[in-house]
Amino acid sequence: MSGSTLIVENLQTHFFTEKGVVKAVDGVSFEVARGEVLGLVGESGSGKSITGFSILGLVDPPGRVVGGRILFQGQDLVGLPAHEMRKLRGRRIAMIFQDPMMTLNPVLSIGTQMVETVLAHEKVSAKEARARARDTLGMVGIPSPEERLAAYPHQFSGGMRQRVAIAIALLHRPELIVADEPTTALDVTIQSQILAQIQTLSRELGMALVWISHDLGVVAGLAHRIAVMYAGRIVEAGPTDDVLDRPVHPYTVGLLQSVAANVPRGAPLKAIPGMAPSPLHRPSGCAFRTRCAFATEVCGTEPPLESAGPVAWRCFHPQVRRAA
């Protein structure tokens, strides 16, 4: 993709434990352009969050990035010295966590935290930093932003705390935001409002956004493209409408069949059988073959990357081709 803000090439993030090596992310590649939203979806444990943490250099021992490249505006972040990464993180690259209390300090006012965030990266006056904090709170839909700067995190509802966390991520108008399931714990109405604001801000500010989620319904209304992860690898990727309307990989089909909105009223949901494999004992070849109704002997070997138009997948038994 020409002019991509973020290019991830063959990313490998492993955790070295006493029981063995956990290949949490094993050869992941994708790109995100300016103003584009990429939805990274999959079950819990598929490697979505570790992929996001790897991009921001937030993987703690015993985990580390052991291979691949993470190109942000052409600069490789893998192996970048910690002090150089700190200059980027928070200013040009930001992250929104699932739990806003991971972002907010409970003993400091919202204004203090936001002003300190601005001053940590830019040489501006405290007055200017406070004005930016106020304006950014208003941008994410918090009423009376000047007054709310004096409030503490416990004085906000869950939805408002998440808006504050999003505002902190937006303070420096970053070129890239990684959002790790930031609306999972919110009710549907608040979730819808925040998603609409995020979409508008991404478009208006030209930010590239990686939205990590297990909720296909959320991603369907937000992302331009979707990458489906399973057992540390991307098994299918392409434009949102193509992936959701004409899924190719059996795992993607299974995810869609387990969504209530995609099942006739009164019909039982079709859950994917079995459990995701242990990352310490992942099957050879296609990791999904132990749960797949279409698996054959050939699935014991590594499926090649195939594509048709803008959609790519790794599967010996693609469902669209099967139907054709």
From TrEMBL:
Compartments (UniProt record): Cell inner membrane
Domain of life per record: Bacteria
InterPro entries: AAA+_ATPase, ABC_Ni/Peptide_Import, ABC_transporter-like_ATP-bd, ABC_transporter-like_CS, Oligopep_ABC_C, P-loop_NTPase
Pfam families: ABC_tran (PF00005), oligo_HPY (PF08352)
GO-annotated cellular components: plasma membrane
Coiled coil: none
Stated family: Belongs to the ABC transporter superfamily.
Name of the protein in its database record: ATP-binding cassette domain-containing protein
The species this protein was found in: Microvirga thermotolerans
Record lineage: Bacteria, Pseudomonadati, Pseudomonadota, Alphaproteobacteria, Hyphomicrobiales
